[in-house]
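Hello,

Our lab assistant flagged a job as stuck in the queue for most of the afternoon. It eventually completed. Since we weren't sure the result was trustworthy after the delay, we are filing this so someone can double-check. Below is the sequence as submitted and the structure that was eventually returned. Let us know if re-running is recommended.
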Amino acid sequence: MPDPGHPGTPILHTGRFTRGLGKFHACDHLPARELPDEEYPFILTSGRVLYHWHGGEMTRRSRGLNEVYPESLVEISPEDAAKLGLNGYNWLRVQSRRGEVIARAVITNRMAPGVIFGNFHFPGRQNVNNLTIAALDPIAKIPEYKVCAVRVEKILSD
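-- returned structure --
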């Protein structure tokens, strides 16, 4: 709005952006604060799944969504699953230096060897956010939830 009496613009950028095509900034790559080692050989990345939103406080109340996705799952590559002796019906203990999570394993080609994925929609011992590191980006102060070192252990089979 160029002045207080202007009625506003329904679409901010029409035809061109106000500052051109964009403003890019070069920045140095900073490695993750915690990387795999001998004791914690896997990288855990956390995130969402299609059927639940944020912490799942609302979506876990939906019978239909819970029928499709009723529990926290940990995705692991076929290569890592073979090394751990997983058969597709196993429960895992995933441990970091900050805690542990118990969840069912899903063997999938979506994961690269050495990386596992867990969602954070389920509270308590199934929430992978309990494992993440409190490191912050030095400028934006965004938490480093997407990378932390963990170890994985098969604990049960169905």
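-- support follow-up --
The delay was a queue issue, not a problem with the job. The result is valid. The chain has a mean pLDDT of 84. Residues 78-84 form the longest helix (7 residues).
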